[in-house]
Amino acid sequence: MRDEDILTEIIDYGTPRRDRPSLATVSYADLKSGAIELGGEMVRTSSLSSYRRARAVAQELKAWIEEGKMELALPTRRIDPTKRVRPMRETAITPRVRDIMNRQVISITEDEEIRVAAKRLLKDETNHLPVLDDNGMLVGIITTYDVAKAVVTDGKLRQVRDIMTRNVIKTTPDEPVDIAAQKLKRNNISALPVVDTTNRVVGILSAIDLGELFGGRWWR
Ligand code: SAM
Hints:
CATH superfamily of the largest domain: CBS-domain
Distance between the termini: 51 Å
CATH topology of the largest domain: CBS-domain
CATH class of the largest domain: Alpha Beta
Low-confidence stretches: none
Oligomer: single chain
Helix content: 25-40%
Strand content: 15-25%
Bound molecules: S-adenosylmethionine
Structural class: alpha+beta
């Protein structure tokens, strides 16, 4: 088995719940590379134990076992498979992105003219357009900020693909809203496309939706 084949979850221990959300699935090879991408940011990683030290310990133990200095003990008590373990009760239910996201997504394709994007943003009174490719997959995001910047910086930029942000920070319907809110804050943005497992946009979550959540709509 190679490091690439060993997968593990990045768990957010900042969330005070038993079922802490998984922020990403990565391989040991990713972790050992020294950095992983998390929510659009590069985060430094390192091995929990030194490989060299772990090998030295393993060799030492192996030698003890072979020389008969150490015996492997039998389990002191077996786990009873017939017993049910009851998890601790959750005291608060955290809403998920699907509970508050906007399902009517106004999007655009990457080959459209920037002017079309500007009109759509104005007409639909929105600030964010997820950008889709010909197969309906999310490939970028464009905002009023990008359109305004294109107007003042370079008249030669024509299409949405010329100015869109390709590294889209997104969320999923199952993600707890507090995690999504952290993504907005950390990245200084105000909306996240909501994608399904095939990277199709099924909604959009904006700071306004979060505002309504904390304004009481969800709790009523
Ligand atoms: N306050 C604005 C906003 O909410 O998007 C502008 C600030 S933000 C730093 C501007 C840049 O963020 C734009 O280039 C835009 O394309 C990008 N952006 C906005 N939402 C994004 C998202 N979900 N993922 C990646 N980039 C995003």
